[in-house]
Structure formats: structure tokens, C-alpha cells
Amino acid sequence: MATAIRLRDDFTAEQLQRLARSSRDAKQVRRLLALRFSVRVDRHFSNLLVVKINDRFEVSGRLVDRKSLRKTTGKVLNLTWEGLGGLI
């Protein structure tokens, strides 16, 4: 197994995706992409359903009200699974 890449908290979703694409280890790519995700907030929606499936195919889901998401000036909001815990 390849050595895990140590990540800092200030990585954006785009930077993680770029890093994951440059990796040759498929499992590491999946882990990197699962750490953060992006939501387009310029679209119309009232709730956000986030589903996480682990390597044993166990499913976890969180339903988040749009009003509880932090405000952003851009079109995209970067979130983490752990960061959703306080929004439910």
C-alpha cells in the first residue's frame, strides 16, 4: 500500500481533485476525493442530501437545510462530511 498523503485543512476541493488525479493508487484517490466535496449554491434548492458509501458498502446519509449552510460570495461552497455534523 502506498504511503498516505498528509493533507492540510486549507485544501480546496479543486486542489484535492488535482492531487487525486496525479496519484497512481486508486484507493488513495477515492480517499482524497471523499474528504471534501463542492456544492453549487447558485442553483435553486431547499435541502441538500449527502450520501457517503464506505469500502464495505455501508451507507450513511445526511439531509441539510440550505439555510444552515454558511454564506459564500461565490457560486461553489466547499464542504466536508465532518463539517456537516453541526448543520443537522
Short description:
The protein is of the alpha+beta class. The chain is built from 2 helices and 4 strands; from the N terminus they run ααββββ. The chain has one domain (13-83).
Helix content: 10-25%
> How many domains?
1
Q: How many strands appear in the DSSP assignment?
A: 4
- For the termini, the CA-CA separation is 36 Å
Order of helices and strands: HHEEEE
What form results from the Cα inertia axes?
A: globular
The biggest sheet amounts to: 2 strands, antiparallel
Discrete helix count: 2
Radius of gyration: 14 Å
Nearest-integer average pLDDT = 77
Strand order of the largest sheet: 1-4
Class derived from helix and strand content: alpha+beta
Strand content: 25-35%
Unreliable stretches, pLDDT < 50, 5 or more residues?
none
List the helices and strands and how they pair.
Blueprint: H1 13-22, H2 26-35, E1 36-40, E2 47-53, E3 59-65, E4 76-80
Antiparallel strand pairs: 1-4, 2-3
